[in-house]
Specification:
- The complex is a heterodimer of chains A (113) and B (109).
- Chain A is mainly β and 113 residues long.
- In chain A, the strands form 2 sheets. In chain A, strands 2, 4, 5, 6, 9, 10 and 11 form a 7-stranded mixed beta sheet that branches. A 4-stranded antiparallel beta sheet of chain A has the order 1-3-8-7, with no helix packed on it.
- Chain A is globular and about 35 Å long.
- Chain B is 0% helix and 58% strand.
- In chain B, a hairpin with a 6-residue loop joins β4 and β5.
- The termini of chain B are far apart.
- The chains are: A mainly beta (113), B mainly beta (109).
Chain lengths: 113, 109
């Protein structure tokens, strides 16, 4: 079965650079969620989209932005990167705005040096 | 917002014993309570979930109980095996998931 696809798998950036993470949800899933997980931490909800509109907002820094496109894929844009942004970034998708049938992608490991 | 507390933070059991992890939540509107197993550097994997209209659910060696009045839910793993060793997260949600801090479970042979 198709899963949630995230790219890239690994990314190394320098401080103050920008990064773009991509997420391709499971076909027919119209809701996408982004999570940030620091070392030894629980996943923290950043932002979600339903039918290409922002639906819920968590602890996303002002330096980050995200959107969902017409094909339902989503991109997380991160600017002015800081060392503390180093983390695993997970995308998840679900069929509809609600957490039933929630599936996580494999994540993008971002390292800021 | 929702606040999920999870205990214990670490748990060590002998192979074959049972393991119990407990979580409490604060938002009475939360209606979905999944449990995830996560290995180092990997994605969280759903192991069992329960909805607010159900009090208990079982899947082979894994069971979850929910007490909506007390706002707590628990994960029970019976006949533990070394491959059960991982970090386990509970979560509560209406839409986005709010995770507990995790329990590092170690099953020793």
């Amino acid at each position: 079965a198709a899963g949630v696809i995230q790219s890239p798998r690994h990314l190394i950036k320098e401080k103050r650079e920008t990064a773009t993470l991509k997420c391709y949800p499971i076909p027919r899933h119209d809701t996408v969620y982004w999570y940030q997980q620091g070392p030894g931490q629980d996943p923290q909800f950043l932002i979600s989209f339903y039918e290409k509109m922002q639906s819920d907002k968590g602890s996303i820094p002002d330096r980050f932005s995200a959107q969902q496109f017409s094909d339902y894929h989503s991109e997380l844009n991160m600017s002015s990167l800081e060392l503390g942004d180093s983390a695993l970034y997970f995308c998840a998708s679900s069929p509809g705005r609600g957490s039933y049938g929630y599936t996580f992608g494999s994540g993008t490991r971002l390292t800021v040096v | 917002g929702e606040n999920v507390e999870q205990h214990p933070s670490t748990l060590s059991v002998q192979e074959g014993d049972s393991a119990v992890i407990k979580c409490t939540y604060s938002d009475s509107a939360s209606n979905y309570f999944p449990w995830y197993k996560q290995e180092l550097g990997k994605r969280p994997q759903l192991i069992i979930d329960i909805r607010s209209n159900v009090g208990e659910k079982k899947d082979q060696r894994i069971a979850v109980t929910l007490n909506k009045t007390a706002k707590h839910f628990s994960l029970h793993i019976t006949e533990t095996q070394p491959e059960d060793s991982a970090v386990y997260f509970c979560a509560a949600s209406t839409y986005a998931l709010n995770f507990g801090k995790g329990t590092s479970l170690l099953v020793t042979p």
